[in-house]
């Protein structure tokens, strides 16, 4: 009897994969969008894709990109690929594409004229290897934002700053009022991100490009970057009491007025939105830290691993088109706090902060994202350095800069 | 001429216990190809500049040079040393003391044994998360003592770079000593009652009996325990990830985490392989002389 039951159970597990009806395919999509605002945004994708008669199987991986990417990569290289997966626009999936593990979408891209409406052009270039298109950019995210809590400054009795220097000057007053001046989560990518935002704000766009694009170690060891390290030193003093790990926990400190501000990408906006806060009234956003108003054009792209199943392969194309369709782009990006990749959609529903971003984008004051310029290896070394710098008061800016220049010199 | 009985040659040694040998073929193949083969493959590729996917483009000792100049790797090694030595000493001492106390024919021995062994049933991840909460200054021990009236009490190992590794050690000991205790208890139970009786007749105090008679007799148990603890130390990873993710500021990094992070996160297999080869070398430096002394002498 027991034996029979066991057999039945085995038979059931074998039979299960064949239950899905032919034609409509179930696609598993992996991503690391798990905070409140992100989950609301990804639900828009799922809704739009389900409306095409297929089924979106959500494969959210909690813990942020640094936890999720190893899982995704090992699934793809290990031979059990998902149907579609998120990566940051840039070089993260470079080798997977070169190894022929990703599907080529050139035909679809030409048929739907992606080139004509995706802006800036660098986004599609990030997806292109040897003239072939391998991914679908879905949003434009920029890192260069300082989010400020109006309530925190009100409590401290100082006006809301309009640039980085005023913010640093307001630090002691915030501290006196029992606030954390600057909230930074403990995960290493957040500290590196904050530093990379300080570079164009303090030293300018040219220095940023010389260091990260040309990998010029002399500039990285030079006086301009020394100024940036000085600013980073201020930042770490202001963030000394910040005891949280995740970026959205840090954002939450700003939302609740326990912290003065946070340097974080525009995805933080999704959190303010979920909390029902109004830009300009409850919180203030300063692109480029209020010094150099420019934004980077990073973001997220979806890659589609090669699959054997014909139905699923057909459905991959449907998913790609759905993600780029004007309606989905608007619905998704408004929830996500990012800018649509299409220049031809109506974004009048955007709030003040997003409009600021759109203006800067229209003016062309843009820089590439660090993910587009550097390999994961280099980014990881920078992460190791900056998480140590921000948490170790005894590590001097001079010593850290020396190590920084060495990493840039070895970068490829 | 030899007598006919000797004509029948003795079966070759190869065919003795044939069925047992056939049965062990899968394990022999696994050991050869998976363990040994995998190790050699890893060492070979640690001399290449493999990134996300392995490729045979040799760069000599570059990966090792980078490894030994990386501050994070040096911190990792230092942490492993501190954790390793202390965890070895404390889990052996505490485990043995608990076992010796349980061995005094006390009441409810089964209950105590279960309580002490219970943490071992939890995974390192669960242990790590639990202790993360206990040691969190805003929710755990510190809060509790401060609420009780001692306002200036400070105990937040996980947020202090200098002592973070001890915070991890506490959790590791809590999880692991139960098993050590059980092994020790089994060893103590294996000691003949007559030895105790003889020692008592000779008027030897109990601590002396333990120190000079019982412990030397338990040598095999100690060696088994040592191997189990040591292997747990080298692969220390999940506990750190669950408790601190290597923080604050990389102060609680360990070698296994370096390997994982560089192989999968930084997409630099070569660097990860170099680090894992160094881990293997470290283990070999400890194990080989010991194995030589232990097994070599008997010949």
Question: How would you describe this structure to a colleague?
Answer:
The complex is a heterodimer of chains A (412) and B (299). In chain A, 52% of the residues lie in helices and 12% in strands. Chain A has 412 residues and is of the alpha/beta class. Chain A folds into 2 domains: 28-141 and 298-362, 3-Layer(aba) Sandwich (D-Maltodextrin-Binding Protein, domain 2); 145-296 and 374-410, Periplasmic binding protein-like II (D-Maltodextrin-Binding Protein, domain 2, 3-Layer(aba) Sandwich). In chain A, the strands form 4 sheets. Chain A has a 5-stranded mixed beta sheet with strand order 2-1-3-12-6, sandwiched between helices. Mean pLDDT of chain A is 88; it is low at 11-22. Chain B is mainly alpha-helical and 299 residues long. Chain B has a single domain (62-296), classed as MetI-like fold, CATH 1.10.3720. Chain B is 70% helix and 0% strand. In chain B, helix 2 packs across helix 14 and helix 4 packs antiparallel against helix 11. Chain B starts with a helix and ends with a helix. The model of chain B is unreliable at 1-5 (pLDDT under 50). Classes of the chains: A alpha/beta (412), B mainly alpha (299). Chain A binds chain B through residues 66, 69-70, 73-74, 77, 92, 94-96, 99, 186-188, 243, 245, 375-377, 379-381, 384, 387-392, 403, 410, and chain B through 51-53, 66, 70-72, 137-138, 159, 161, 245, 247-251, 260-262, 264-268, 271.
Question: Quick check: average pLDDT of chain A?
Answer: 88
What is the CATH class designation of the largest domain in chain A?
Answer: Alpha Beta
How large, in whole angstroms, is the Cα Rg of chain A?
A: 23 Å
The computed structural class of chain B is mainly alpha
Number of DSSP strand runs of chain B: 0
Total domain count of chain B = 1
Number of strands of chain A: 13
Q: Name the CATH superfamily assignment of chain B.
A: MetI-like
Question: Which strand order do you get reading across the main beta sheet of chain A?
Answer: 2-1-3-12-6
């Amino acid at each position: 009897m027991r034996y029979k039951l066991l057999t039945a159970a085995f038979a059931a597990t074998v039979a299960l994969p064949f239950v899905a009806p032919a034609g409509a395919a179930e696609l598993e999509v992996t991503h690391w969008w798990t905070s409140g605002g992100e989950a609301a945004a990804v639900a828009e994708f799922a809704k739009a894709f389900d409306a095409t008669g297929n089924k979106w199987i959500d494969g959210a991986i909690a813990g942020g990109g640094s936890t999720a990417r190893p899982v995704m990569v090992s699934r793809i290289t290990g031979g059990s690929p998902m149907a579609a997966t998120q990566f940051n626009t840039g070089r993260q999936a470079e080798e997977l594409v070169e190894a022929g593990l990703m599907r080529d979408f050139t035909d679809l891209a030409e048929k739907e004229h992606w080139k004509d409406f995706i802006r800036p052009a660098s986004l599609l270039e990030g997806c292109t290897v040897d003239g072939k298109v391998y991914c679908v950019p879905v949003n434009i995210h920029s890192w260069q934002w300082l989010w400020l809590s109006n309530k925190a400054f009100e409590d401290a009795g100082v006006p809301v700053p309009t640039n980085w220097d005023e913010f640093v000057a307001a630090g002691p007053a915030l501290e006196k009022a029992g606030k954390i001046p600057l909230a930074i989560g403990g995960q290493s990518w957040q500290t590196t991100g904050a530093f990379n935002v300080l570079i164009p704000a303090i030293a300018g766009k040219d220095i940023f490009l010389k260091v990260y694009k040309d990998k010029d170690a002399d500039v990285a060891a030079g006086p301009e970057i020394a100024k940036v390290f000085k600013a980073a030193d201020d930042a770490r003093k202001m963030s000394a009491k910040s005891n949280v790990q995740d970026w959205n926990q840090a954002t939450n400190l700003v939302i609740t007025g326990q912290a003065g501000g946070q340097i974080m990408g525009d995805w933080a906006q999704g959190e303010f939105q979920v909390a029902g806060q109004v830009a300009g009234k409850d919180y203030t956003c300063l692109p480029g830290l209020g010094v150099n108003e420019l934004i980077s054009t990073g973001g997220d792209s979806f890659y589609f691993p090669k699959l054997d199943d014909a139905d699923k392969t057909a459905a991959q194309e449907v998913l790609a088109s759905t993600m780029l369709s004007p309606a989905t782009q608007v619905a998704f990006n408004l929830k996500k706090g990012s800018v649509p990749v299409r220049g031809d959609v109506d974004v009048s529903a955007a709030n003040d902060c997003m409009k600021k971003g759109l203006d800067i984008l229209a003016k062309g004051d843009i820089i590439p994202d660090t993910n587009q310029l550097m390999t994961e290896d280099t980014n990881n070394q920078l992460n190791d350095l900056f998480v140590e710098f921000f948490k170790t008061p005894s590590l001097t800016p001079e010593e850290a800069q020396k190590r920084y220049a060495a990493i840039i010199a070895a970068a490829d | 001429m030899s007598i006919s009985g000797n004509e029948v040659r003795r079966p070759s040694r190869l065919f003795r216990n044939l069925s047992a040998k056939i049965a062990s073929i899968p394990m022999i193949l696994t050991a050869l190809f998976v363990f040994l083969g995998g190790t050699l493959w890893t060492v070979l590729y640690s001399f290449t500049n493999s990134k996300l996917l392995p490729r045979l483009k040799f760069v000599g000792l570059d990966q090792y040079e980078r490894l030994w100049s990386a501050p994070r790797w040096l911190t990792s090694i230092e942490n492993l040393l501190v954790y390793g030595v202390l965890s070895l000493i404390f889990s052996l001492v505490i485990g043995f003391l608990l076992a010796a106390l349980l061995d005094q024919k006390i009441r409810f021995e089964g209950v105590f044994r279960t309580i002490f062994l219970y943490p071992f049933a939890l995974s390192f991840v669960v242990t790590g998360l639990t202790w993360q909460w206990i040691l969190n200054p805003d929710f755990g021990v510190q809060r509790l003592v401060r609420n009780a009236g001692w306002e200036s009490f400070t105990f937040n190992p996980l947020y202090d770079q200098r002592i973070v590794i001890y915070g991890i050690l506490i959790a590791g000991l809590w999880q692991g000593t139960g098993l050590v205790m059980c092994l020790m208890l089994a060893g103590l139970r294996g000691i003949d009652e007559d030895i105790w009786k003889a020692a008592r007749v000779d008027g030897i105090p109990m601590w002396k009996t333990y120190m000079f008679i019982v412990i030397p007799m338990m040598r095999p148990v100690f060696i088994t325990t040592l191997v189990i603890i040591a292997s747990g130390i080298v692969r220390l990873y999940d506990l750190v990830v669950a408790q601190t993710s290597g923080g604050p500021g990389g102060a609680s990094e360990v070698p296994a985490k370096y390997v994982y992070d560089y192989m999968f996160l930084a997409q630099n297999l070569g660097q990860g392989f170099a680090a894992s080869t160094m881990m293997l070398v470290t283990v070999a430096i400890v194990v080989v002389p010991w194995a030589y002394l232990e097994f070599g002498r008997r010949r």
